[in-house]
Amino acid sequence: DTEQKSFKIEGMTCASCVQTIEKATGKLDGVLDTHVNLATEKMNIEYDPSVASVSDILDAVSNAGYEAHEDI
Ligand code: 9UX
């Protein structure tokens, strides 16, 4: 089964940031789909929680140079 989760992203200022983050999260095992919105500073991810964890996703964004927080 897959799950959808929304994150708040800090530090994006141009459209290339969006591409960087989508690439970094999209290549993670267990991530099926990722969408980043520059205007709303949100990222929506569809992932398989038995393969990828929220902290894997947060780490991928962090390693790409941005800060992500899980939306609650
Ligand atoms: Mo655009 Mo984002 O020049 O880190 S790629 S600001």
TrEMBL record:
It comes from Salinicoccus halitifaciens. Belongs to the cation transport ATPase (P-type) (TC 3.A.3) family. Type IB subfamily. It is found in: Cell membrane; Endomembrane system. Coiled coil: none annotated. Residues 3-69 form the HMA domain. This is Copper-exporting P-type ATPase.
